[in-house]
Amino acid sequence: SSSFRKGHEISRVRKEFPRLFRVPFNRELGFEIQIRCMTRGSLETNNHSRIVYMKGQPEQVLKRCIHYRTNTSDKLLDAADETSADSKDAVRKKVQKAVNFMCCEGLRVIALACSQELKFHDYAGRTGRYIYKLDNND
Fold it and tell me: What is the CATH number of the domain that holds 124?
């Protein structure tokens, strides 16, 4: 069946790109973090390629972001809006306005971010201790 194939595919991808570390979601933090290998292979053969995924409350995720992705490119989140003479934080304000609208409609809004440019911050992985920076405010 189709659902079996999808489940099998998910299992295969999780095995090929293993999770190294996870900070589970909690209300105090407002987000969840996962660090995964980016290249196929065992944990021993891909020691350098890592990607951080963050999901959670939009305000918590957005304050750690510097870029956003459109259909065609990545853009600076704090750049002035190209379509108007709005302030430097116009994009953040538009995102917050959209989030507020969806919440008023009874929808749950979750933001997703990723970074391949890991900097140093402490975390304990399954195969040892790694140091990466997870918050660009430090």
Answer: 3.40.1110.10
